[in-house]
Amino acid sequence: MAPQPICLQAVRTLNDIHVIIPHHLTTAPSDLQAATVERRFLDLLAQQVMLNGAASSTNMDLRRLDLETLHQILQALGHTLLIGWETQR
Question: Which residue, of 11, 40, 76, 89, has the fewest CB within 10 Å?
Fold first, then answer.
């Protein structure tokens, strides 16, 4: 694993991109394409949030940053998400 400062900077950069993606989905040619991209980026973020390996301080810091990013996305754009809000009938 890379040193902690490098890992944290990489995750911050990736999370900055994650926050931007939903803003640009509204320009997708169709809801199907937007939903596909949305599913992919949310799946990637979910993989990042899952604790992999030992619960080291670096892993916990990375997980915290990812959860904060998810929180930002939901606060700003949760009402516009196309997937994840399906209801069972």
Answer: 89
